[in-house]
Amino acid sequence: MKKNIALFILCVSTISSVFGENVLNLKIGPLWPRYLLDTDTKTAWDATVEYGIDIDEKVGFGVGADFIWNRSTKDKDTLIDTSISDQQKTVQEDIKSFMFPVSGFIFVDPLSHMLVHPLLQFNIGYMPHIYSQRGKEIENTTRYYHGLYMQLALDGVYGFSENASVLAGINYQWANTRRRDKDDRNTIYYRNMSGLGFEMGFSFNF
User: Fold this and answer.
1) Backbone phi, psi, residue 160, to 5°
2) Residue 122, Cβ neighbours under 10 Å: how many?
3) What's the rounded Cα separation, in Å, for the pair 101 and 68?
């Protein structure tokens, strides 16, 4: 699976450098993966860079890379002076999740001649996922997950110049990452990082 996805992304990148009009997308927005909904900080942030080509005015394809991050901290009240009941807050544990999806995508822009128009895009690729947990009263751990990544996005696009547009929209990603524990049972653990997100950014043609 990893080799097939890497080969697809390499082919798209090679073709993009030869044919069609180049497209560069820069996007950022919040994301709510299902696994994080049970934590204190439910929102992750997704920054995206995409490069592709327009086959014609309505269809195009390319490759993209995302950086998704989330940090959650838990505070604990610690008594400093019992005589006057002063208290201070100290960080009990620090939990971080970092995801790095790499994908190929295809987009459909059926009404590109309009000033404001919809754009539908589908991505598929591979997502490494790093989970880190640190704290004073817990065992410090770092775990590595990975899995198939897919995303469907619907954006509204406004062209404010001949070669530049601003876009904003909604997306949903599918990503059920996993890791295999190196024990006698070879236990597999899953993290459901699928979820709804919003995005906004800029698109440049050159």
Assistant:
1) -90, -5
2) 15
3) 8
